[in-house]
Each structure stands twice: as structure tokens, then as C-alpha cells.
Amino acid sequence: MVVCRQLGLGYSLHAVTETWYWDADTGVKEMVLSGVKCTGNEMTLSQCQNHGANIKCQKTGTRFAAGVICSETASDLILDARLVQQSAYIEDRPLHMLYCAAEEDCLSSTAKNANWPYGHRRLLRFSSEIHNIGRADFRPKAGRHSWVWHECHGHYHSMDIFTHYDILTVNGSKVAEGHKASFCLEDSDCEDNVHKRYECANFGEQGITVGCWDSYRHDIDCQWIDITDIKPGNYIMQVVINPNHEVSESDFTNNAMKCNCKYDGHRIWMHNCHIGDAFSDEAERKFEKYPGQLNNLIP
How far apart are CA 163 and CA 28, in angstroms? Predict the structure, then answer.
């Protein structure tokens, strides 16, 4: 996958394990990296863990090379960061309205110790649109025979882990997370002249067509992060699509979105929501100076 990315050839379908030999009379010296170990997220082979270029070969006789088969047709998912920033708000939701969400493990672990059905959980809610801008449809890894029926919400879920929702401290420690147990994937809407192909209803085919997007409205169950237990302060909200790389994509570098969050215990300010893993120095300098959009508390 790293080799294909470095060569601009898309996603790696598989590596060829055979060795090729041929005569090389040119005498060109080759640099060989040994002990290469990649996670799959690196942009080039040099960024992978390795033992260094500790072997130099004088190519006068045989020569061998590793072959990699690459595909230029793969899906590529990206989140609409602006929509997340514009739609985020806090809701204090009564526990008696959260039984279904608790059944699907959509609340933080401390919710099981709450005084059900009295009291509430504080939820950071937001809408999201996940667009497929690649060259192939995004399809769930598991076949239909292994999809799980969720009686509570009335549809099949095809992926146990499709998106992570997290609240992090400014140094990266996780303090809250959205326990969205699993997902149904479908085309909520599409660009002009693109037809929907996937729909969850009636055990339909699941996926996201190229040029379409799967929408999760702020007011549906589990489209939130349970922030009941976090204290006021500055945080980072993070959303990661396809976090375990279970489904192939041509580009995993645009799967993460981060936002600056400022929480005063009653309201939350969200700003600088953007695609990528890191904040720029300029964004960090503006963190306190620009509080961003004021999001209302829904009691």
C-alpha cells in the first residue's frame, strides 16, 4: 500500500511474493532497505520502520525485485468538516429516552451506573456527511450473511466499526468517545446525474456510490459523543472514518477530521474543523483568540 501510494498508483491489492531474476550488465549500484515494517499510513517507504540502507549490491549478474500490483480504482471517503462545525450542539437528554441507545452501546461506560430512568446524559450532537470521492463504490467488508439485525433501530448493520468519534485533550489523551456500535451504509444523496445504488431498508444492498454520500443527522440515535463526564476546558474533537482500514481506499490521509472545542460546562464553541491529523501553528495561536461559532444548549 505504501509503495503504491508513493508511486501514485492507488491502493495495493496484494504483494507478489515471487522473486524475479534477470541479467543486468549495467553495473548500477542498488540501495536495499532491510527490515522494512510499515503500518500502511506512511507516504513513502523511507518513513517506514527499517534497518537502514545497510546493503549495497553491485549488479553485474543476477538482480531481483519485489512486485506490487496496484489498483487505480478504489473508494475514497471524506467527511464534510464544515457541516460538523455548523451543526454541533449540546443536548441534555433524559435517560428514559436513551434505552435504545444504551442497548446499542452508544453511551459512555459510566451510563450503566446512572439512576435509570431518572437523570440525563449530556451529549455533543452533530450532523455528518461522508462523501465517496474515489473511483469505486465503498462496500462493507462483511457479506450479507454476516450483517446483524438491530431490532431497536429496525435495520441491518453491516460494519461494526465504520467511524470513531472522540474528544481529546490538547495533548492527545482521549477523555470521551462516541460508542456508535455499528452502521448501515447507504446513499442518502448524490451529485447531479449520479443515481443512488444502495439503501439499508428491506435488507437492501449497502455501500456508498462514487459521487454520493451517507448522511447521519444530528437528531438520530448515537450520532453524538457522550460528554457527561468531561470537565470544562479546551479540547479537540476527532472523527475518523474507516479507522481500521478494513475497506480499501485510494487515500487514507483524508479520513480524519479534527476541530478545536472550548467547553465551559454549559455551552460549547467549535472552530477550525478541518480534514487532516494535525493543527497548524497558526491555528494553535488563534485557539483562544477566535472562539468560533456559538452553539446552543438544547435542554
Answer: 47
Query: What predicted TM-score, i.e. pTM, was given to this entire model?
Result: 0.70
Per-residue pLDDT tens over the stretch 109-132: 899 999 999 999 999 999 999 999
Q: Are 169 and 235 in contact (CB under 8 A)?
A: yes
Write down the pLDDT at residue 297.
47
User: Looking at per-residue confidence, does 179 or 44 come out higher?
Assistant: 44
Rounded to the nearest integer, the mean pLDDT of the chain is 79
For 238, phi then psi, to 5°, come to -130, 135
Q: What is the 3-state secondary structure (H, E, C) of the chain?
A: CHHHHHHCCCEEEEEECCCCCEECCCCCEEEECCCCECCCCCCCHHHCECCCCCEEEECCCEECCCEEEEECCCECEEECHHHHHHHCEEEEEEHHHCHHHHHCCCCCHHHHHCCCCCCEEEEEECCEEEEECCCCCECCCCCHHHCEEECCCCEEECECCCEEEEEEECCCCEEEEECCCCECCCCCEECCCCCCCCCCHHHCCCCECCCEEEEECCCCCCCEEECCCCCCEEEEEEEEECCCCCCCECCCCCCEEEEEEEECCCCEEEEEEEECCCCCHHHHHCCCCCCCEEECEEC
Per-residue pLDDT of 10-48, as tens digits, reads: 556 555 544 444 444 444 445 566 677 887 778 778 788
Give the number of other CB atoms < 10 A from CB of residue 53: 12
